[in-house]
Give the backbone structure.
Amino acid sequence: MIHFHRVSLEYPSTKTLALYNINLEVKKGEFVFLVGHSGAGKSSLLSLILKRFDPTSGAVYVNGQNLKTLKGNRIAQHRRRIGMVFQDHRLLAGLTVEENLAFVLRVLGVPKGEWRDRITRVLRTVGLVHKKRAYPYQLSVGEAQRVAIARAIIGNPSIVLADEPTGNLDPDNALAILEVFKAIHARGATVVVATHSRELVEAYPQRTIVLRSGQIVRDEKGARYNL
Ligand SMILES: Nc1ncnc2c1ncn2[C@@H]1O[C@H](COP(=O)(O)OP(=O)(O)OP(=O)(O)O)[C@@H](O)[C@H]1O
Ligand SMILES: [Mg+2]
């Protein structure tokens, strides 16, 4: 599903070698934690899956497609198939929760007749049906993050990527977010979560990839969290 073949990434502006010789295979339906110190390359790796950059060398494949060959409209199409969750929720401040979700459905070209059902279903998944008319400023940080996850999954993406989705949350809220990712995983999505949170990794023993200075130094199933 996601395949990295000898991938290196050097940021041209600073000549920083953010990733070096990454070989990685993530299968359909797998759940993967990506851990490592600040600057280890976690966000860079996720950026390559989204094709925000092309690797300096090597190749990234998603569903068998070398991302380097995607151009123009095909890049947008590729990104629409991926649900991305950031550390800061990035909701549109002037729109309510349901309007934020409808906005995505419009972009995805989903017929209007389906919106109400899709929005209710996804809000049920994140436990926030009762907040559908709230504006982002009326939500707690944890609630806003759950809406951000709802937004990422409302298009039924087969891949969900999250970059520090619980970075701003206390442990209880972080575990509530984890439950949402577990539910998404249980439905068959491939999920990659970059995190610093030991609690998260230990609460859901899954494949854990440890990056150090741009290289994979460990890749194993289980809850061991040693950076
Ligand atoms: N846009 C950029 N331009 C230049 N260098 C960058 C850029 N983004 C990241 N880097 C560098 O690439 C390396 C990897 O950064 P990256 O953001 O991938 O790390 P990270 O593991 O996500 O860290 P954190 O846990 O702090 O989010 C770092 O040395 C960083 O300074
Ligand atoms: Mg990062």
